[in-house]
Structures are given as C-alpha cells and as structure tokens.
C-alpha cells in the first residue's frame, strides 16, 4: 500500500520557486493499476520519483514536505536501494537507467546485487525477456538498441526484480501501437496474476482506459481528478479543457449522450463501444 500525506516538493529551496508537487494526499491500495495523466509540466515525473525515493534523495537541494509511505516504509528514512526491493522503476529516459553493455547483463545486474543464485537469475532473465517480447535481444549490446528496444529492456529489468509496486514513467513513448499494447498486456498479467501494484504515467489515454482501474489527472502539482476509470472518462469535458486528448470512443459516446441517445456508463474499450452502438 502507498500512503501519501501532505506531500509538497520544489526542486529549489527558493521560496519563489514554483512547487512541482502541492499538498498531495492519497492512498493507493495493493493490486491497483493506476494511470496518471496530465499536461506537460504537471508534475507527473516528479510524482513518480517521490514514490521510488529519487525525490528527495537525489534532489536534496529541493524542499520536501510531508510523507510518502511505501509498504510501510517512509521514503525519506529508507535509502533508494532499500526501497528498490519493493518499488521497481522504469524512468522516462531509459538511457539514464541502462548501466551495462549487454542486455542479459542489464537484467542480471540488480539480481546479482541482491545475491540471487545463478539458476534463479537465469530463470528470471528468460522469463522477463519473454514477457516483454524481446528474447531475441538477449545477447545484444545495449548501445546498439533502438529507443523502443531500450524501453523494453528497462521494463524487463524492472520486472525481473519482481517488485510489489512498479512505477513507470511513459514507458511506451518510443513504441509503436502493437509494442505499446504488448507492454500493457504484460503489465495487466502481472497485476492480475501476481497482484503487482502498477502506477503508470502515459500519454496514450486509450491504453490507460482499457487497462487501468483508476485514473488520476494532474495539473500544476495537484491531482484535479482521481477515481475509477469510467468515472473519470465521464468527465470528458474537463479532460478536454485540461488539454487531454480523450479516446475517440469516449468522444463518440459523449456525442450520443449529448444527443440524448445514450444514458449508460462510458465505455473503456472497443467491445463495450460496439455493444452500445448495437443496442441503439
Ligand atoms: N530537475 C529539475 N529542476 C528544476 N525544476 C524541475 C526539474 N524537473 C522538473 N522541474 C519542474 O517541475 C515541474 C514538474 O515537472 P515534471 O517533469 O514532474 O512534469 P511532467 O508532468 O512529468 O511533465 P512532462 O509530461 O513534460 O514530462 C515543472 O515546472 C518542471 O519545469
């Protein structure tokens, strides 16, 4: 479980510096699959970094107020490496995350540091590469990888650690639609079968609608909307005002609602939309 109390953060101690996070209070239960959206500069990356301890540990010239508890651990009290046993992270820029020269070494790196046996490490490398659809990259040099391949290697490395909580910051930004869907399918499997808590910042709202059970909408350091996915999609007018491009299925059903032709729930996927259309 993640519990955040009165969290505020600015990157600079300067009082006039704009706060990147402003008095955030929320709880995320174990097993939730949470999508975070919001315009550029809203504070999404800063929020993810507050969950894995990068904020405040790597930004110690900043001003951090409040508390973030991850599975009962206070992120200020516990080091990032200790926290990483519970929280896996996929950063926005995989270049900054990848530290070894060969893909399989990248996956093995944290596992070796944890002192796992060679056989266990082998199993986890094979499994996580398969889950991310990149088994063929196992013996490749990391410097030869495309941006999308790097993203998948970073995700595979995080998954191999089997964290209770996985925080991902735009992990599909360099992937095509099929590659992006494959990542979401993998995350869904881990969420459903292993109860992994997933918090993902993502621009592709359609994917979030399909896979997340909760959506949180951020602007200027605050969460303006937070609730079950369907409920947040009902707020399509506010989403558009915030500059968030709603999925086409939401736009279509919104037109039906406004024309008085449909009064039910907002769909979250194509199948639900088709049955709404068929019922008309
Ligand atoms: N290293 C930093 N030093 C100073 N200010 C920063 C730093 N990183 C981010 N900020 C500021 O903090 C605020 C929140 O930025 P953040 O990157 O968290 O937003 P975001 O929603 O993730 O944006 P994007 O979608 O563009 O990645 C912005 O005003 C940004 O300029």
Write structural notes for this entry.
This is Energy-coupling factor ABC transporter ATP-binding protein. Keywords: ATP-binding, Nucleotide-binding. With 280 residues, the protein is α/β, with parallel strands linked by helices. 42% of the residues lie in helices and 21% in strands. It has 13 helices and ten strands. It has helices at residues 44-51, 54-57, 80-83, 94-97, 103-113, 118-131, 147-160, 177-194, 205-211, 229-234, 236-241, 248-258, 270-279, and strands at 2-10, 21-28, 33-37, 63-70, 73-74, 87-90, 165-169, 197-201, 214-219, 222-228. The strands form two sheets. Strands 6-7-8-3-9-10 form a six-stranded mixed beta sheet, with helices on both faces. Strands 2-1-4-5 form a four-stranded antiparallel beta sheet, covered by helices on one side. A hairpin with a 2-residue loop joins strand 9 (214-219) and strand 10 (222-228). Helix 5 packs parallel to helix 7. The chain is globular, with a radius of gyration of 20 Å. The model has no long low-confidence stretch (mean pLDDT 93). The site of adenosine-5'-triphosphate has 11 residues, from helix 1.
């Amino acid at each position: 479980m993640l519990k955040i109390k009165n969290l505020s953060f600015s990157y600079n101690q300067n009082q006039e510096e704009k706060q990147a996070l402003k008095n955030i209070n929320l709880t995320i239960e174990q097993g939730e699959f949470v999508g975070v959206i919001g315009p550029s500069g809203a504070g999404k990356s800063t929020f993810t970094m507050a969950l894995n301890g990068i904020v405040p540990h790597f930004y110690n010239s900043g001003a951090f107020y409040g508390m973030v508890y991850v599975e009962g651990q206070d992120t200020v009290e516990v080091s990032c490496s200790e926290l990483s046993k519970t929280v896996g992270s996929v950063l926005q820029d995989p270049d900054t995350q990848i530290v070894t020269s060969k893909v399989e070494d990248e996956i093995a790196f944290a596992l070796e540091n944890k002192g796992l046996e060679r056989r266990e490490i082998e199993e986890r490398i094979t499994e996580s590469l398969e889950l991310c659809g990149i088994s063929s990259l196992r013996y490749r040099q990391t410097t030869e990888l495309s941006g999308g391949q790097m993203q998948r290697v970073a995700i595979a490395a995080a998954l191999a650690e089997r964290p209770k909580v996985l925080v991902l910051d735009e992990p599909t930004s360099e992937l095509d639609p099929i590659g992006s869907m494959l990542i979401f399918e993998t995350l869904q499997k881990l969420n459903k079968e292993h109860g992994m808590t997933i918090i993902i910042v993502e621009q592709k709202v359609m994917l979030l609608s399909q896979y997340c059970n909760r959506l949180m909408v951020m602007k200027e350091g605050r969460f303006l909307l937070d609730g079950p996915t369907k409920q947040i999609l009902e707020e399509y007018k506010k989403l558009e005002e915030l500059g968030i491009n709603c999925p086409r299925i939401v736009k279509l059903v919104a037109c039906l609602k406004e024309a008085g032709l449909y009064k039910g729930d907002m769909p979250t996927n194509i199948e639900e939309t088709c049955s709404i259309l068929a019922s008309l």
